[in-house]
Amino acid sequence: LTVHRKDYRPPAWLVPEVHLTFDLALTCTCVTALMTVRRNPQAAREECICLLGDGIVAETVMVDGGIATGWHMEGDDLILPLAQDDAQITILTRLDPAANTQLMGFYASQGMLCTQCEAQGFRRISFFPDRPDVLSTYTVRMEGSAAQFPVLLSNGNCVQSGALDNGRHFAVWHDPWPKPSYLFALVAGRLVANRDDFTTRSGRKVDLAIWVRPGDEAGTAHAMQSLKHAMAWDEQVFGREYDLDVFNIVAVSDFNMGAMENKGLNIFNTRYILAEPDTATDADYDAIEGVVGHEYFHNWSGNRVTCRDWFQLSLKEGFTVLRDQLFSAAMGSDAVKRIEDVRILRAAQFPEDSGPLAHPIRPDSYQEISNFYTATVYNKGAEVIRMMRTMAGEDAFRKGSDLYFARHDGEAATCEDFISAMEDGAGLDLAGFRRWYEQSGTPHVSMTMKHDSSTGAVTLTFVQRLSASGDDQVPRPMVMPMKIALFDRSDSAPGEFRAQEHLLILDARECRFRFDGFGEAPMVSANRGFSAPINLDIAHDESRLQFLAMHDDDPFCRYEALQQILTTEVLATAAQGADTQRRRAITDIFSFTLADDRIDDLMRGELMTLPPISVLIETAAPADPVALQTARIALQAAIGTACADQLSAVHTRTAQHRYSLDAGSRGARKVRNHALFLLAAADGDAAARLAQRQYENADNMTDRQGALVAIAGVQTSLRDTLLEDFAQRYRDNALVIDKWYAIQAGAHHPHVLDQVSKLAKRDDFSLRNPNRVRALYMAMAGNPTAFHEASGAGYEMLARLILALDPINPQTAARFVPSLGRWRRIEPARSALMRDALKRLAASSYLSRDVREQVDKSLGTD
Ligand code: ARG
Ligand code: ZN
């Protein structure tokens, strides 16, 4: 059942053309697929064509117009003997979209019909060589009730449409660009559009439309703005222009992932489209901009150049994540965006990379590809390409990217093709760098500094801890760019610190670099901008960190220095109690930060953020997550107490701000909420009153949600009052009710598990809606108070969820397994309970392939 990368063979048959006909109905849609197939001269001859299927039945099979007889089924797949070199194959299938709860293939969502084909959903619609290296030109004809499905959309351009008898109508769409089946899409339903247009730099006028359910139009303005910004940015920065006359986006309430880049017809989870000030936070607005950009950028990095096989997933995802990160940075704050991206990488990808589900960004094998849409493939994949950009410089990187697109336009390419294009176009030698594609795990690098006061020489030594992996018996070092700066203490007044930045390349187990002219030992700022996605140990010197936390001119390193101090203190508190001296240093830094007028509030907000609990667990391993959570809150309380006056002043100052999406106004909301959180940890009762005022006066969701989050962790009757008010106020908005679920499941509250059980029994909770399931249970799984409750009740609850969800939606069910898979990083008593939960899952009589793979790997028994 395991698929291996090394087993790749080119397809025996190509399918240059596909004609699909859909006779649409909610419970019975008839699909006729007419495929022109042709032997692939590049592949070994095969006497049969293998058409992959998944849970579908062929009602009729025809070859060149006559009924075919010699075919048979092998499991889910249809095997059809073909002696000739070319043929026209017609296959009829009948689907029940309303019964498709997996949300893969063709399904119904709130009365509308839609598709999700990546990675292997097309085979749930029609028998097909459903692999990304088979590219076809699609023509799609849909017909159905005009009342039920007034809007009919597919990829490309609408070439024909009209009325039929009996209240029915039809539309024909044609996509001139050959594409793999995973990029096919169809949408039919009662939808309204926010329309706009964009003219490309070469003068093509593109009609843009964002389709939503009637009543949701007002929430599409930000997504539309983001789309137009993304189209312009991709022209300016990557030289990429849009290539069709229409670009449609549809928002769907039931969706397994964030969004999908189907050619000319992107399909989105509503949460990445709909936003209004009263219902969406600033973070929601940012996520929409990022995801709209991401899917749009796939038009080149993914669609025009696609993947040869699914092992190459990072070719499109890593690159496209980097592109969306650079886009968001350009639209907002570069510094803050980098800090956010690194925080996500560390909180989500580092734990994955140090656990049983670790895999290289280009995996060598998989059982179920859906399990590989991971933080490693996406976010570490983006870091790896970012490193190429850092080593090449922006201009050379652009040359490499241009060459990649020029060489492989219209092809299904590999990661190796990308690396080669970067070597040739950007003039890089990436021989050793390729190891990033082969090796899993976060590299460890330690740095030491030697200073010779007689010569003024400074020597930096970097040593990598090496590990062997895969077929490779000999451990080899990673190649990485290391940005550093040396601050001369005797140089200037603190605050005006600017040192020259150096780009070092680490390419051996041990690398040494010498710098001259330092009378005193300088302060080293290393891995600036997080130039390499590694764990960097620097021989401990807390005074150095304290200095950098206030004065480093690299925003990431300033943030990072403070995070390190805070992490040390949380870990110390959990293990042996607070360190008075370090606490004083920390509150001094906070006090300094709150008053520092060299930074804006968006950056100040970052510096007021304590390390995420998942990072603390990862650092402390084997961890007692509840002790860490308690210690984290205690440290927040200490800061809240020591800086109470300043924090209250911040809260008051920012109350004057008028709502807008400007950086100033967003920054005000960010520091305002962080001030509230710190004050709430210090004095729950006083902060509850402050939170109530913030809640009641709020004219936007950032303020209102922040107040509710603050009060959700406080034991007060106000808590229930505000939660109830929120539920009533937003009862008609599913996305906001998701927040309401998540806030309660994520709260540090003694009865949180009981509350989660109660929430799961509500009428508006359904296992069929992934957003709702994730809102409740991802928040629970990320909340130590709930998930790591000492009896193991949290693990039990998650295991029961996985079992209940698996038959309904295996892909989403499998996403909950990794939380249990972290058992090796947890203290022995809980660790054993986590394993017990996994073992019970493993012993279950029915498990999907998705969940089975994650459970077996998590236990280490695969
Ligand atoms: N390609 C999509 C993206 O933009 C993700 C789709 C993955 N879907 C899935 N069912 N595995 O990242
Ligand atoms: Zn993507």
From TrEMBL:
UniProt similarity note: Belongs to the peptidase M1 family.
Entry keywords, A to Z: Aminopeptidase, Hydrolase, Metal-binding, Metalloprotease, Protease, Zinc
SUPFAM superfamilies per record: Leukotriene A4 hydrolase N-terminal domain (SSF63737), Metalloproteases ('zincins'), catalytic domain (SSF55486)
Gene that produces this protein: pepN
Organism for this UniProt entry: Croceicoccus esteveae
Domain Peptidase M1 alanyl aminopeptidase C-terminal per the UniProt entry, residue ranges: 544-859
Names of required cofactors: Zn(2+)
EC number: 3.4.11.2
Catalyzed reactions per annotation: Release of an N-terminal amino acid, Xaa-|-Yaa- from a peptide, amide or arylamide. Xaa is preferably Ala, but may be most amino acids including Pro (slow action). When a terminal hydrophobic residue is followed by a prolyl residue, the two may be released as an intact Xaa-Pro dipeptide
TM region(s), chain numbering: none
Gene Ontology MF terms: alanyl aminopeptidase activity
Taxonomic superkingdom: Bacteria
Domain Peptidase M1 alanyl aminopeptidase Ig-like fold: start-end pairs: 441-537
Protein name (record): Aminopeptidase N
Residues in Aminopeptidase N-like N-terminal domain copies: 95-183
Peptidase M1 membrane alanine aminopeptidase domain location: 223-433
